[in-house]
Amino acid sequence: xxxxxxxxxxxxxxxxxxxxxxxxxxxxxxxxxxxxxxxxxxxxxxxxxxxxxxxxxxxxxxxxxxxxxxxxxxxxxxxxxxxxxxxxxxxxxxxxxxxxxxxxxxxxxxxxxxxxxxxxxxxxxxxxxxxxxxxxxxxxxxxxxxxxxxxxxxxxxxxxxxxxxxxxxxxxxxxxxxxxxxxxxxxxxxxxxxxxxxxxxxxxxxxxxxxxxxxxxxxxxxxx
Amino acid sequence: xxxxxxxxxxxxxxxxxxxxxxxxxxxxxxxxxxxxxxxxxxxxxxxxxxxxxxxxxxxxxxxxxxxxxxxxxxxxxxxxxxxxxxxxxxxxxxxxxxxxxxxxxxxxxxxxxxxxxxxxxxxxxxxxxxxxxxxxxxxxxxxxxxxxxxxxxxxxxxxxxxxxxxxxxxxxxxxxxxxxxxxxxxxxxxxxxxxxxxxxxxxxxxxxxxxxxxxxxxxxxxxx
Lengths: 224, 224
Hints:
2 copies of one chain form a homodimer. By secondary structure, chain A is an alpha/beta fold. The first copy, chain A, has helices spanning 2-27, 42-53, 70-76, 95-104, 146-149, 151-156, 175-185, 202-222, and strands at 30-36, 59-65, 82-86, 112-116, 133-139, 159-163, 191-193.
């Protein structure tokens, strides 16, 4: 019974996600769904990478949170269009709420939309939002055992940003165990090591985002 | 429609939680529901505090995880009874699964049962497991803004362990903002600052657990 209900929710979500995907493709916009645990640094990553991108690309942001508009205020300070999506207790973003957010953004004037999900590495991995790619963010402080313990997200993501590498010397993070576990679950997604505090690695992440933008443009040019 | 279904799930959970609570009270066992984001240090906290407690108290552990038995193996190495509760994708523990775990523990011979929830600070806060208290664990590395952004958990918890205080000098954690936000949501729960890496503060947390154990014994003595 519960399973059937959950399937209905996921099917309804998938339909809304497909609509989002079509809308984004028509506009030639790359949508990147950022997923991490609370405090891994999704907003800090955007604060760092948006200035690198916005010299050449037009960026929009949907900020998902359970409560408060703090993250949207941080992103708004960068001068890019941002919409706060409040789940009011909900533990993940769903495609229908993202559709409302996309309708509020000037999509035809954008190249990339970052969708910052609720801080949670369990539930958000289950819900397609219509994005081009899920991007995981993991903080060194969370420990090297997370890919094995939360396999769905680490399997689904198309790139993994390992943040707070400035803390590697102050934690017991074991890079060898981490890489073995991560590659066992996801053999191909690039691992991009960054520190949003020191600025290390941000150019590499910006370059990955630029690739995603060019792919979305190429797909839009090919579509009927 | 979805709301009604969710209410049914929560009502069924509450009934199972009430049964757990009665069973624990009859046995005079304090059950503590540990909730945190992934990698905040719940298992590390148990690895540190169980040796402090087990000279005088008998400890049992239920280890909740989405996948793997790694945490139960870490706790089992301490020589205390531990049961791994696997949700197989589920983002939180529910009371019915905890009931199965309690049935496998030698409850009548225990003083305290730690229930380590799935790493997630959204969903687990919504589900009563029949515990005496929810105990939150927050890592300094997650940032000072978490109480405002995840208000339900910080409102519900009876004690908050702030872990990884050895990283305070290596992060931008603002203790004043944190305390203002936390006390706005929860004026009374003690804040216990620890570092599971250096050992700082663990005696204080052990003393808080001992209080909870003595309260559970007192309640059992008073019950008919």
